[in-house]
Amino acid sequence: MPRPPFDVVRAAFLLVALVLVAHIVVVLIGVGACIVRLSEPGYKCDADGHLFELLGAALSAALAFAGGMMRGGPPPPPRE
Fold it and tell me: Distance (Å, rounded) from C-alpha 80 to C-alpha 64?
């Protein structure tokens, strides 16, 4: 059976998905750390807004990829 051609769009989707999953895991770890340390007096959870910044970066990456998919790509090469 011949091997199917390398699909760049699928590879790009998997790369963006991996980055989004990594962002989400980091944010969940940060939120978990905040929940654990909330009992300490004077502790401010995410005082600098780094967790929101990570979520914003993940959202912008997802929207950029979705926008590129909606625009359409170049036409497929002709079959021989």
Answer: 33
